[in-house]
Write a structure and sequence with these properties.
The complex is a heterodimer of chains A (175) and B (570). By secondary structure, chain A is an alpha+beta fold. Helices cover 33% and strands 39% of the residues of chain A. Chain A starts with a strand and ends with a helix. Chain B is globular. In chain B, helix 1 crosses helix 2 and helix 3 packs across helix 18. The model of chain B has no long low-confidence stretch (mean pLDDT 97). Chain B: Its EC number is 2.2.1.6.
Chain lengths: 175, 570
């Protein structure tokens, strides 16, 4: 039995209403939780790219990819381990402004963690941090001790180290 | 594109455009049921009655199964029309059935006007959302101008590659709206690869395994029928002398009497092919998907064998059984490529093993089924009479349960596309409407529906469709006054606790007569042959009820979780 690990799934699709539903149902049927999901434009005009994070065995992953690619409006689906991609995740922390005076070391923490102060007003301030999963996790654990009013994290976005020959594929399709 | 059928631009309403699209796709029959949101379409249909026959079923589910029967016997796309809300939700079972059994079908549903979408309007339901997991593709149209291109895509997707159902939801305002109509058939969608490329070398690799095999076994499925590859398939098995077994949906692709036809695999399949699956050295799967009812316990399924998988749907390869060689593509093409690579040979000693095991099944099961020593009629005797009276040329449309297994086991087939049944979904109520659709598609073929007393009552209202359309289908109800398959499981695995499986049935003959359908009931064996003969000779629809043994079981049987080689004969 192979081990469950984190896979980043990249799916190139036509931009059609309802397709996300169709694809997410494939994960749902197999009780696979979607850890994060991001939808954006891609390097190709009118082609959408989804980045989906799941924790599964490679065997499961292959079967799911097959079923995703089978969908009429899915152009291509890929899966990668963390080593095979360059990825970023991004998050926002909202904290009480009083903390800047009560715990001024927070300002150093922001610098040390390569985070960024987005806004400050008399009631609250907002920190933005982008990075790998564990970097965000570390900052979260650190700031938690001071009290976080709100926290949110965006879906992972990723590019693969190897070429995804999607443009070539599309030009073949259109030929 | 030289073959594209272009129609001159015309100013049409969306509703009329739908009809023009159907006609351009060669559709001459649709199955459906009107209602508020689809009324503009029905209004236009009124003017096209000579070109487009509409069969009014008595329930939308009946329309889907009729369209499935129509598609399964003809390999054409079955077309269904229904209204929004409950009309649309009633299609779901038929869609799911067509999805899992790869049946080409296009369902067109009316939808509330676009300005009402999302407001919980009267008869509004999110049918695109609901039908997503049970369709190959679906789409909602809110503008008339999208109708031609979307319907062209719908037919292309339903029919190409591994076929399946498509649902197109069209708002009422789009049906009324006028636009400049032009129809262009679709033969390409950039994101869609209906037939995967056959990897170079895969056919040769398959041939090498087959040529070196001592005990090869073929298991073929519906892919042979859907790919219209019956002749290519036969040429391959005859040249290489390979014993060949079929899945329930593959039945009739090769005539039953063929020397190399070794019977059905799976839970209630034949003894020899199940048992010998675990003794073959090369297992060749042709257009089938290793359903759990076929394989039993996967961890003990053909582990000793090299597996070759000929398959059009690459997602099926390695899904259940790992393939040593996968040959992707349409089996008609790949088997054509395979044939010259094969060495002409026979495997007579190996084939004899199948014949020896058949003898065991004959003595322990088949003789008791066909020549019972008890007074009660068996289901198999009825099927055998139908074989005799129709010269084994009938299309058998079976429902789901014991009678289905018996029909598939004992029906003798001479022609392809003769076994129409709900294999994957196991939809009780499938047979009666599916038989109507099959008979409408192929009026010159004898169509016999074989149904249990349970399933019959799930879509019994379609007798009204038979009455109104005068479709001469033959209906055989094998009545054991039980939901027989569930009762069999209760007997074998639940200590004979017959919870809610006993049926108190109405007078079925009177019900049929209420629809002016000639009807007869047989209780005694000596009346059976004559009754079947009378039914087959009738030029009209005919209902025959046969009272069969109440607690007869279907054997052989592979219990759930058991290995195919643990198949039980009693």
């Amino acid at each position: 039995m192979s081990k469950e690990i984190t896979y980043t799934v990249s799916i190139y699709t036509e931009n059609n209403i309802g397709l996300l539903n169709r694809v997410s149902a494939i994960f749902q049927r197999r009780h696979i939780n979607i850890e994060s999901i991001n939808s954006s434009i891609s390097e190709i005009e009118n082609v959408t790219k989804w980045t989906i994070l799941v924790i599964v065995t490679e065997e499961q992953m292959k079967k799911v990819i097959g079923q995703i690619e089978k969908q009429v409006e899915v152009i291509r689906a890929y899966y990668h381990t963390d080593d095979e991609i360059i990825y970023q995740e991004s998050c926002l922390f909202k904290m009480k402004s009083d903390l800047l005076f009560e715990a001024p070391q927070i300002q150093n923490l922001i610098k040390d963690h390569n985070a960024r102060l987005v806004t400050v007003n008399k009631d609250f301030f907002v920190i933005e941090k982008s990075g790998r999963t564990e970097e965000i996790e570390t900052l979260y654990q650190t700031l938690k001790t001071y009290g976080i009013s709100q926290f949110t994290r965006a879906g992972r976005i990723a590019v693969s180290k190897e070429r995804m020959e999607i443009s070539k594929l599309l030009s073949l399709f259109n030929a | 594109m030289a073959n594209q059928k272009n129609i001159k631009t015309q100013r049409l309403s969306g509703a009329e455009a739908i009809i023009k699209c159907l006609l351009a796709e060669g559709v001459d029959t649709i199955f459906g049921y009107p209602g508020g949101a689809i009324m503009p379409l029905y209004d236009k249909l009124y003017g096209y009655q000579n070109e487009l026959k509409h069969v009014l079923t008595r329930h939308e589910q009946g329309a889907t199964h009729a369209a499935q029967g129509y598609a399964r016997i003809s390999n054409k796309v079955g077309v269904v029309t229904a209204t929004s809300g409950p009309g649309a939700t009633n299609l779901v079972t038929g869609l799911a059935d067509a999805q899992i059994d790869s049946t080409p079908m296009v369902c067109i549903t009316g939808q509330v006007a676009s300005h009402l979408l999302g407001t919980d309007a009267f008869q509004e339901t999110d049918i695109v959302g609901i039908s997503t997991p049970v369709t190959k593709w679906n789409h909602q149209i809110t503008k008339a101008e999208d109708i031609p291109s979307v319907l062209a895509k719908a037919f292309y997707i339903a029919k190409s590659g591994r076929p399946g159902p498509v649902l197109i939801d069209i708002t009422k305002d789009a049906q009324f709206e006028e636009f400049d109509f032009l129809y262009k058939k679709c033969n390409h969608i950039r994101s869609y690869v209906p037939v995967p490329e056959t990897k170079s070398g895969s056919v040769k690799a398959a041939a090498e395994l087959i040529n070196n095999a001592k005990k090869p076994l073929i298991v073929w499925g519906q892919g042979v029928i859907l790919g219209e590859a019956e002749a290519e398939f036969k040429a391959v098995i005859e040249k290489a002398g390979i014993p060949s077994a079929w899945t329930i949906l593959g039945a009739s692709a090769l005539e039953t009497s063929h020397n190399l036809n070794v019977g059905m695999v799976g839970m209630h399949g034949n003894y020899a092919p199940n048992k010998l699956t675990n003794e073959c050295d090369v297992l060749i799967a042709v257009g089938m998907r290793f359903d759990d009812r076929v394989t039993g316990d996967l961890s003990r399924y053909a582990k000793q064998a090299k597996v070759i998988h000929f398959e059009i749907d690459s997602a099926e390869v390695n899904k259940n059984v790992k393939a040593d060689v996968a040959v992707l593509g349409n089996v008609k093409d790949t088997l054509t490529q395979l044939l010259p690579e094969l060495r002409a040979t026979n495997h007579d000693a190996w084939l004899q093993e199948f014949k020896d095991l058949y003898q065991i099944e004959l003595e322990k099961v088949i003789n008791d089924d066909l020549k019972p020593k008890v007074a009660e009629i068996t289901m198999a005797e009825v099927i055998e009479q139908i074989n005799i009276q129709t010269n084994a040329k009938a299309a058998i449309v079976s429902d789901v349960g014991q009678h289905q297994m018996v029909a598939c086991r004992y029906a003798k087939f001479k022609e392809t596309k003769s076994n129409i049944t709900s294999g994957g979904l196991g939809t009780m109520g499938f047979a009666l409407p599916a038989a109507i659709g099959a008979k409408i598609a192929e009026p010159n073929r004898e169509v016999v529906a074989i149904i249990g007393d349970g399933g019959y009552q799930m879509t019994i209202q379609e007798l009204g469709t038979i009455f109104q359309t005068k479709t001469p289908v033959k209906i055989v109800v094998l009545n054991n006054e039980f939901l027989g398959m569930v009762r069999q499981w209760q007997q074998l695995f639940f200590d004979k606790r017959y919870a809610s499986t006993e049926m108190v049935n109405p007078n079925f003959v009177k019900i049929a007569e209420g629809y002016s359908i000639e009807a007869k009931k047989v209780v005694k064996r000596e009346d059976l042959a004559q009754a079947v003969e009378d039914m087959i000779k009738s030029k009209n629809a005919y209902f025959l009820e046969v009272m069969v043994g109440k607690e007869n079981n279907v054997f052989p049987m592979i219990p759930t979780g058991a290995s195919v080689s643990e198949i039980r004969l009693e």
